[in-house]
Specification:
309 residues, Rossmann fold, 2 domains, four-stranded antiparallel sheet, 11 helices
Length: 309
């Protein structure tokens, strides 16, 4: 039902349930009269239907119907006057935010990062440069908790965070983007950015479940959307606030990832090859944005690829 209707859509699941339920009853009455034999022949029809759907409409029937008959959707109203989310105090200039000592990562017999060390102070822009396959993204994954470190230490704001979960590290004030853009393409720009502020306004499991069921979370949602809108305007994407994230060109998708990272209220921002695949003017816009963020007090560490002959 979910595959035929569309697993990523609420209405798709309902459509798939209706198609399967109605067609099953109809086929159980029709096919025995045609073949003059009893049996579960509807399973064969459903198998053929599944193959056709996966080939012709891999996202399900609902997206096809939605494209043919677009529904008018009410635009969200974002109230800028709602109270701001709480922010962490910025560290003083020249404070050591990040210190990595002898970081090593092994994948079996492959040593991806070997005794790497670096230091980032408040007020700095630090670049990690190397050729493809040098281990830059792996290094960022070790720092941000995406991968466990084999040996060595990672200290963020004087706290050892090696082998801590990425959620714990993000909560301390370290955020990042990825080498390959990781967005929810069918969601709007503002919804993608609001995900970054989730942990800053997390009501807890029970409050989230029951509050969402009776829509008691409208004030929290308004604050998240307002914060997301402020970060979108901060990076210069205000004109695309209600566009689908997947409709943006690559350069703006990378800027969108930065806005989502900023929504977590970081004091250190890791950018994994943020200029990869960008045109000249897009790189200039990215450089201007990084200088602007540095002037506002956000620190950054970014990776870049150099080609060697």
């Amino acid at each position: 039902m979910a595959v035929i209707g569309g697993a990523g859509y609420v209405w798709g699941a309902l459509l798939g349930a209706a198609v399967i339920t109605v067609s099953k009853t109809w086929l159980q009455d029709l096919i025995p009269h045609l073949v003059e034999q009893a049996g579960n022949f509807e399973v064969i029809v459903f198998g053929i239907l599944m193959i056709v759907i996966l080939q012709r409409a891999p996202d399900g029937l609902w997206p096809v119907i939605a494209r043919r008959f677009p529904l008018r959707q009410a635009r969200r109203v974002i109230a800028p006057e709602v109270p701001h989310l709480a922010r962490k105090p910025l560290p003083p200039k020249d404070e050591v935010l990040l210190e990595v000592r002898d970081a090593t990562k092994r994948f079996g017999g492959l040593v991806a990062v070997n005794a790497m060390g670096l230091q980032v102070k408040a007020g700095e822009i630090v670049a990690l440069i190397g050729p493809n396959g040098a281990g830059k993204s792996t290094m960022f994954n070790l720092i941000s908790g995406v991968l466990d470190i084999t040996s060595g230490s990672v200290c963020f704001r004087s706290k050892e965070v090696a082998n801590h979960s990425s959620r714990e590290i993000a909560r301390l004030g370290l955020s990042r983007t990825f080498q390959h853009v990781r967005l929810l393409p069918q969601m709007t720009v503002v919804d993608n950015v609001a995900i970054g502020a989730h942990r800053r306004e997390y009501p807890g499991l029970l409050a989230g479940v029951f509050g969402g069921a009776w829509r008691l979370d409208r004030k929290d949602e308004a604050r998240l959307l307002a914060e997301a809108a402020r970060q979108i305007e901060r990076v210069g994407l205000a004109d695309h606030m209600f566009d689908a994230a997947g409709s943006l060109p690559l350069g703006k998708q990378r800027i969108l990832e930065i806005a989502r990272a900023l929504c977590t209220d970081p004091c250190l921002l890791l950018l994994d090859e943020p200029a990869a695949g960008l045109r000249y003017l897009e790189k200039r816009a990215l450089a201007d944005l990084l200088r602007k963020l540095k002037g506002e007090g956000c620190r950054s560490c970014w990776s870049s690829t150099t080609w060697t002959s």
